[in-house]
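Here is a complete protein record:
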Amino acid sequence: MTPSGSPVVPLAMMLLLLWGAPWTYGRRSDVRIITDENWKELLEGEWMIEFYAPWCPACQNLQPEWENFAEWGEDLEVNVAKVDVTEQPGLSGRFIITALPTIYHCKDGEFRRYQGPRTKKDFINFISEKEWKSIEPVSSWFGPGSVLMSSMSALFQLSMWIRTCHNYFIEDLGLPVWGSYAVFALATLLSGLLLGLCMIFVADCLFPSKRRRPQPYPSKKLLPESSQPLQKVEEEQEDDEDVSEEEAGSKEGTNKDFAQNAIRQRSVGPSLATDKS
């Protein structure tokens, strides 16, 4: 007979509670976590992805429905996932998340934005009845795998890095706000100078400058057709100069003849006077 103060019963109850706890409170969630490292898994198969933030009230209200919907993922042959935009700013920029929560459907790399009711039943009908076919997919230019969205993701990551550095300067190093801004301004100037020098160096390597050689004076025999009118004008000017010289010479000749005739008349006049006397 077991005494009333025996610890066997409490130990048995404790073991039962510990054995049942994983099934009630510690059950593994069927929702997969997507990060910058494994987001390319979305390009294969069928997915439903939720973008959320822990501080968002609408996201908090959606979580129970999303967890219940994830339990049907295996039966519907769909993967249910979620992305914390506060931890993954690159994915927030890659998918252009402007409102929370945002839900996307993906089928073999084609992304469609879900804008229907947010209940488990509606999610199940959306997959089972293939309602996603009536939604136009996102253009390949704005797809998460495009060059444009990859650049957008890098910008979002850079902005988060700048914000982290700003908080580090202010909180950990104790710099004033204007001091943090001055550091970023100086870094921007230096990076701009380095980038400009690199661009000039690359441009000189790809397109080296050519030195101009002095062009020889073209000879008259090898004048191009475009210079023929100029040559004709010069020849006409030379002819005019020759004509003017001839006219001047003829005028000088007439003047000399006139002078000689005048001298002769003067010489003849006195002789006639002597003859008459």
